[in-house]
Amino acid sequence: MSWLKRLRVDTFTLALLATVALAWKFPLQGAPAQWMDDFTDLAIAALFFLHGARLSREAILAGMLHWRLHLVIFASTFILFPLLGLALKPLSGHLLTPELYLGLLFLCTLPSTVQSSIAFTSMAGGNVPAAVCSASASSLLGVLLTPLLLSALAGAHGGMADPTEAIGKIMLQLLVPFVAGHLLRRWIGGWVERQRAVLRYTDQGTVLLVVYTAFSVSMNSGLWQSTPLLALYVVIAVCALLLAVVMAATTFAARKLGFSREDEIAIVFCGSKKSLATGVPMAKILFATGALGAIVLPVMIFHQIQLIVCAQLAQRYARKAAGRAELEQAAD
User: Fold this and answer.
1) What is the pTM (predicted TM-score) of this model?
2) What burial letters (b/e) apply to 92-129, b meaning 16+ CB within 10 Å?
3) Which pLDDT belongs to residue 332?
4) N- to C-terminal Cα distance for the chain?
5) Whole-angstrom Cα distance, residue 321 to residue 311?
6) Which residues contact residue 246 at a Cβ distance below 8 angstroms, ignoring those fewer than 6 apart?
7) Residues near 262 by Cβ (< 8 Å), separated by ≥ 6?
């Protein structure tokens, strides 16, 4: 298994691939598909309830005052990314199927991740309280901004639900459980923190459920028979290019605006990432269509690329910090 370590393919990625293969071989149909759909809705609500219970109010207050940093991150997440997605429009209908291009647009309008943004910021020695505040706020803003931005960019294409109706559904299924969990943090927060390692699998399991149901619908609709292999390669290349451009832009902006090294790290990691855990449930609400599998595919691909790249970058930041500390000790 050493080749897997060299490629840095984690177990969750393998689980995602296995889930797609399962949906391809054994897609759900009829009543079982409806039961699974209802169960997935409950699992999504439980997931965001636990996210709310994990969120520390102290961490939010500690990072809220750093408004310049948050503005840069939000500009990257909700302005730069959507503009880049719009710039890819000439690829639609040529190198990309309309469904895959819609998936890329959806990816570009998603909020930032929470757990991995914070984890990589911490690993690299960045401003963790600011990362906690910014990533959490990004997820909450995404409830409103993602449907509105996607509606503005894509219009009525791809079977997207009405944005105002979608916002109501997202708030009911994601935001209400999130707020309820946070309000109950006083009583259940300690237990949730102690179970963090176990509850990580709740996040992953919910994503796998949604992916399985989405790809089952896509298989039943015959979508993948009409999707050329070249288009899938183009999606991978475009996802890598998007990440590279945004990471370069956020690094340049952080240095040009005079942020500290710790703030730069938070800006780069929070401003360049997109949330799979939030994106897949949102897609289920926004797109009641057989193309759902193709729409979430760019999000899945980008998720793995960002983990690989950010892990390497975090280690690089950490090594540089360790080198500077050694030099300072030697100078003393």
Assistant:
1) 0.81
2) beebbbebbbbbbbbbbbbbbbbebbbbbbbbbbbbbb
3) 58
4) 46
5) 16
6) 76, 80, 81, 84, 271, 272
7) 125, 126, 127
The domain made up of 10-320 has a fold known as Na+/H+ antiporter like fold (1.20.1530)
Domain boundary assignment for the chain: 10-320
- 60 compared with 131, residue with greater pLDDT: 131
Give the tokens for residue 74. 């939000």
Span 207-223, pLDDT tens digits: 788 778 877 877 776 66
Phi-psi region of 50 (alpha: psi -120 to 50; beta: other; left: phi over 0): alpha
Please give the radius of gyration of the chain, using alpha carbons only, rounded to the nearest integer. 20
Compute CA distances 112 → 39, 185, 199, whole Å.
26, 23, 20
Distances (CA, A) of 239 to 88, 103, 160, 226: 11, 11, 22, 21
Q: What is the pLDDT of residue 294?
A: 83
Q: 232-253, pLDDT tens digit by residue?
A: 899 999 999 999 999 999 999 9
